[in-house]
Amino acid sequence: MPAGEALTGSVLRIERSSIHDGPGLRTVVFLKGCPLGCAWCSTPESQAPVPERGYVPELCTACGTCVDICPARALTPSRCGSAIIRDVVRCELCFCCVAACPRDAVRRFGTFMTVEEVVREISKDEVFFFHSGGGVTLSGGEPLAQPDFVAHLLRECRERGIHTAMETSFHVPFDSVERVLPLLDLLYVDIKHMDGESHRRWVGSDNSLILDNIGKADRWEGPVEIVIRIPLVPGVNDSDWNLQAVADSCRRMGKLKEVELLPYHRLGSHSYAALGRDYALKSLLPPSRERIIERTRYLARLDPGAPVKVGGGFS
Ligand code: SF4
Ligand code: SF4
Questions:
Q1: CB 197 within 8 A of CB 236
Q2: I need a labelling partner for 197 at 20 to 30 A (CA). Which of 57, 96, 97, 143 fits?
Q3: How far is Cα 162 from Cα 49, in angstroms, rounded to an integer?
Q4: pLDDT in the model for residue 62
Q5: How far does the centroid of ligand 2 lie from the alpha carbon of residue 277, in Å?
Q6: What is the CA radius of gyration of the chain?
Q7: Is residue 191 in contact with ligand 2, taking CB distance under 6 Å?
Q8: Residues 43-56: pLDDT tens digits?
Q9: Distances (CA, A) of 231 to 35, 46, 100, 167
Q10: Do 265 and 311 form a contact (C-beta atoms < 8 A)?
Q11: Distances from the Cα of 251 to the Cα of 40, 136, 144, 165, 218, angstroms
């Protein structure tokens, strides 16, 4: 980065007052870009590394406002006149159409922000952090897909005395992990599947780098705490075998604070349509409440070395 130039990151959104991603009230910074492609991903708009434009045809009245305003002349009415077609080669991602659409049928997913801009947003919540014991959680996407930006951001939070947490897939070089470990109080790491081939099938890559990074982070001499998260996806990774293998792996850890099951849900499936993508798990139903409780008790009986909880707002 040339001297004097501000470091920017690709940010999907910033959410305030989360109670599910660390202690107290959290401000969660969702970053864009992910090296994996989980079939059940609930934020597909976080996967690409740069801002994207989404379109929801069901909300569009074909009023033509966006067609007229587009400086790149990238938009045309469809043949039947009921929708708008975008020429993705012509589109310059200026997002003028997002601001102009009166129906919220065009969406912007992500924006570039400097570290200072993100810190300014975070600082607005410092009083809530102070009263609730909360702080900042970096999520994604994969935060460590932008290691420079994330390291700078965490350092700024640290200097302000803000508690820091990060949710990561750990499918990144350990060099990137090592840079942020001293800047983190809490680390959430997913174990999506213990079988390498199944992991590749459902996630797009095997699990060796992830498991290796968990071992290295656990042996790192600093004080960070680790929570292992398991997305509980019916028929994919909720078998006895997989939970036993996760428990065996967790039992070897020294920094393990908790094991959290995150039940599969379909809340993000509409985002696939807005991005013009297919949702691979269309026919998969979320686990029942009974199944979630049964799987949680089963994992707890295996004694993974830390308390087992259900995350994601389950009650
Ligand atoms: S993002 Fe800009 S260039 Fe692309 S379609 Fe919308 S108005 Fe046109
Ligand atoms: S401005 Fe919105 S509602 Fe009007 S044609 Fe464009 S997308 Fe559809």
A1: no
A2: 143
A3: 27
A4: 96
A5: 20
A6: 21
A7: no
A8: 999 999 999 999 99
A9: 17, 17, 38, 13
A10: no
A11: 27, 28, 26, 22, 12
52, 66, 70, 84: which to mutate for ligand 1, most atoms within 8 A of CB?
A: 70
Token couple for 262: 């995150």
Task: Tell how far CA 156 is from the center of its chain.
Answer: 21
- Across residues 299-305, what is the average pLDDT? 97
DSSP state of 194: S
Q: Are 112 and 8 in contact (CB under 8 A)?
A: yes
Beta-strand pair 186-190/163-168: parallel
* Contacts (Cβ under 8 Å, ≥6 apart) of 281: 39, 40, 266
DSSP state of 47: T
CA distance 40 to 268: 9
- Report the predicted TM-score, pTM, of the whole model to 2 decimal places: 0.94
CB neighbour list of residue 137: distance below 8 Å, 6 or more residues apart: 18, 21, 22, 26, 27, 28, 29, 164, 165, 166, 167
Atom of ligand 1 nearest to the CA of 94: 2
Task: Give 214: exposed, middle or buried? Use CB within 10 Å, 0-12, 13-18, 19+.
Answer: buried
Using one digit for the tens of pLDDT, what is the confidence trace for 80-98? 989 999 999 999 999 999 9
Return the structure tokens found at 99. Answer: 């601001």
CB of 66 sitting under 6 A from ligand 2: yes
The residue length of the chain stands at: 315
Q: How far is the CA of 88 from the centre of ligand 1 (A)?
A: 9
DSSP 103: T
pLDDT value at residue 4: 59
Domains of the chain: 8-49+110-310 (3.20.20.70), 52-109 (3.30.70.20)
